[in-house]
Design goal:
By secondary structure, this protein is of the alpha+beta class. Among the domains are: 150 residues, no CATH class; 73 residues. It is built from 13 helices and twelve strands. Helix 11 runs antiparallel to helix 12. The radius of gyration is 33 Å and the shape is flat.
């Protein structure tokens, strides 16, 4: 049996994404060898976190769920109720999938338990009244404690921990599913509940953040390097703040014989006298070199994070690139998004398959996640369209196809009916132009014959 030893990694990913925990209270900062406790406490209080992990993760997930996922199924009463409330707390399937997609991408995997109510009604109406239906529970990898595969690679048992709260406080519960049974134990390993698993399979769905061998139950998170880089930027920002805080003000210097020196008060309401045979007092500024080095290092690390994520040509980094280079960057981004969309689609279909097994009904379910994430530059699209029209290709079909490309780029979310109306108007205008051109040609021929 394997044991989860990656909790520290998962905590870093969680805090880096949400800007919470160690980045909020400053505990992520490491105390200098000769730093006083007072200075360390002050430095933690002044620390600030520049969150790059959050936007990077979101940019690899949100495009998949920009629009409602296309779903087709037999609309039974039980299945409709399930789709509207998949987790018994009112979350519909679309929201559940988009929420857990973030966890799958962030941690590398998330597990979905498709469970069923222990007590069922005497009729379907009773089941609907009690919501005695299958339900989903998301299990983050930090809570996975054990698993086994047989020689064929089939998952034969799966264990995880959970925490719940009641009047007596928080309690740890240990859950285990096998192909034949299930059980629940307390934190002292005392058996609380158990039962038979009539599905004869472990009702767990593996949802990976990228294409992964299913036997890798706790794969290395895809974005751990980016999270650690953001962690280092957090430290550099603290050092930069310390330099700015300690050396922000210039220092006034003046010549002195070294004797009979007294305190001198400098301000806007008094004067500073100095001997006429000496140089005037002047301000000296602290060396800006260390701060500039830190700022340059932070800038480079930010660029590296976007480069590692494959988003350097999309967000965060401004650079002049050729059209071919942009195309290759887009291809990489598009393939990564498509790969994740495939993982989401596989997970959703597996969830519904287990629902059908628990509910004892077939809903003929199908879903279709997007396979193209075209990100058009509107200005480039319009310029290309104008160049196409400038070719003077005398083809009505060609002109209409160019117009469609312009509409798709300039108004991507246009209502389908309005889109059809515009195309029909363009078609009619093209027909009128074609007829008037033909009529004009006939007149020219008649005049030339006269």
């Amino acid at each position: 049996m394997a044991t989860n030893r990656k909790n520290e990694m998962y905590k870093l990913l969680h805090d880096a994404y949400y800007g919470d925990g160690q980045f909020y209270d400053g505990s992520a900062l490491i105390k200098h060898a000769r730093e006083s406790n007072k200075n360390y406490a002050r430095r933690k209080k002044l620390a600030y976190y520049l969150n790059y992990v959050g936007p990077i993760i979101d940019s690899t997930v949100l495009p998949v769920f920009n629009d409602e996922i296309k779903r087709d199924y037999s609309d039974t009463a039980k299945f409709k109720m399930f789709l509207d409330d998949v987790d018994r707390v009112g979350t519909n399937l679309q929201d559940f999938m988009s929420r857990q997609a973030v966890a799958a991408k962030l941690y590398g995997v998330v597990y979905i338990l498709v469970n069923n109510e222990a007590t069922l009604g005497e009729s379907e109406a009773d089941d609907l009244n009690m919501r005695a239906l299958p339900f989903l529970t998301a299990i983050e990898p930090k809570n996975v404690t054990g698993w086994h595969f047989n020689e064929r690679g089939r998952l034969i048992d799966f264990s995880y921990e959970g925490v719940y709260y009641d009047d007596d406080g928080y309690h740890v519960r240990k859950y285990k599913w096998t192909i034949d049974s299930w059980e629940v134990r307390d934190e002292h390993d005392q058996l609380l509940k158990s039962g038979n698993n009539n599905l004869k399979r472990v009702p767990i769905v593996q949802w990976f953040g990228r294409n992964t061998d299913p036997r890798r139950v706790l794969p290395a998170p895809e974005f751990i390097s980016i999270a650690k880089t953001n962690y280092h930027i957090y430290h550099l920002c603290s050092l930069l703040s310390q330099i700015s805080d300690n050396q922000a003000f210039n220092i006034l210097t003046m010549q002195s014989a070294g004797t009979n020196m007294t305190d001198v008060t400098i301000g806007t309401n008094n004067l500073l006298l100095y001997p006429s045979d000496t140089n005037a007092p002047q301000f000296i500024a602290p060396d800006s070199g260390p701060a500039e080095v830190l700022m340059e290092q932070i800038k480079n690390l930010v660029g590296e994070m976007y480069r590692m994520s494959g988003l350097n040509s999309v967000i965060g980094v401004e650079s002049a690139k050729s059209g071919l280079a942009k195309k290759w960057d887009f291809e990489r981004t598009n393939k990564n998004l498509v790969n994740f969309a495939v993982q989401c689609e596989k997970a959703e279909k597996a969830i519904i398959t287990l629902y059908e097994m628990w509910a004892g009904e077939t809903v003929n379910y199908s879903c279709e996640y997007p396979r193209d994430f075209n990100i058009d530059d509107v200005a480039d699209c319009l310029a290309q369209a104008q160049q196409a029209f400038d070719l003077d290709i005398t083809s009505k079909t060609f002109s209409l196809e160019v117009a469609k490309k312009v509409l798709e780029s300039y108004m991507p979310n246009i209502d389908p009916d309005i889109y059809d109306t515009i195309i029909n108007e363009l078609q009619a205008a093209a027909d009128d132009l074609e007829q008037s051109t033909a009529y004009g040609s006939e007149l020219d021929d008649d005049q030339s014959n006269d």
